[in-house]
Amino acid sequence: MNITKAQVDALNAIVTVAITKEDYSDKVEKVLADYRKNAAISGFRKGAVPMSLIQKQYGKAVLLEEVNKILQASLNNYLTTEKLDILGNPLPVVTESIDWDAEHFSFDFELGLAPLFSVDLTAKNPVIQYKVVADDTMLNAQVERIQKQYGKLISQAEVKADYEVSGTFTNEAQGINAPANFALDVFANKKVAKAFIGKKVGDEVAIGTKGLFDDDHKLMDYLKVGHDAVHGLDITVNFTIEEINAVEKAELNQELFDKLFGPGVITSVADLKAKIKADAEVQFAQQADQKFLNDVTDFLIDSTKFELPATFLKKWIKTVAETPLSDAQAEEEFAKAEKGLRYQLIEGKVMADNNLQITFEDLKAHTAEIIKKQMAQFGQLNPSEDEINGIVARVMSNQDEVKRLSEQVMSEKMLGLYKEKVKAKAKEVNYDQFIKAMYGE
Prior knowledge:
Largest sheet: 5 strands, antiparallel
Number of strands: 11
Radius of gyration: 33 Å
Number of helices: 14
Structural class: alpha+beta
């Protein structure tokens, strides 16, 4: 057997695998001998069928199978030994016909090679690292929300300006059927708020979605529609009123503080706001980290220039598709996948350049931390180490979970590296400003 590689260009190559009779003959003969032992052919005793008849009936199929096994094994071994960094899988070069009566065979395979490039994390770039603060406006709103949440609901006959209503948004054409509860001041469009005044349980209010809220993203929460759908959404939804309530706000006293956080933890409104601020900013920091990671990713994709073996990849996409694809469809699929592929290569390069690896201990510690947080949510604040280790072992016996957790650990490592090396501009914003920055508005 002989394997050679011909370089077409920097991103494409042809590998030729030449197989001789010596490579396959013993294997073919052994398989045919096994066939002969078990063959049941009329006129012959079992095991006494002439080999010539076995050869005639099964020889070609066995030859094809054994040559294919040798071909795949040798090609995979060659790619590993030569440490060829390929994209997709080798594609066989289609020939008009193969003479299976010959003794020697030659097969060509196209390879798409990964490009060589460098990644500069320290270059000047437009990435902003946000610090999101809970400002007084937000804290006051959260305190009022708590007062309403723990206040007393008093059922009312008809809607007035300061009442809350519960019901369901519907739009059959858009598949919207979303229960909601709100006060009328939630609407930016004051005409909509006025349309509710005087309505009773069972009444229906038609509402236009355009300009309904001060931020279109609130449509995601109230109508339960996706992010892409809310931008410029201009439809009519119907809201059927099911409950009307006046809210008698809870007093900001020690009884409420103890109910919220336990006896004596909070003793004043100032303490309450400080607690809300601290908890909120922990959540904000996580969201800001994710945005920073996303923004660095986009920056690296835009700034790291390299070519891909596009023609090869489009051909490869057609071979792995579940249904046959036209050239135009393959082009479209490649366009969809290109950004992800580019970042996959960039991420791999960054990991190699900075020796980022995931160890078993990394994965175990990350999993244990998640489990502790989940148990704390259910009041189990001091689980034993044996209990944690037992749950970790069960989780890590699931390969899908291990893959998901590994991706989380690597994201954390990449985030830490980017924070250390990427030259970012710090910017302090409130949450509303951050949301606008998050969605590009």
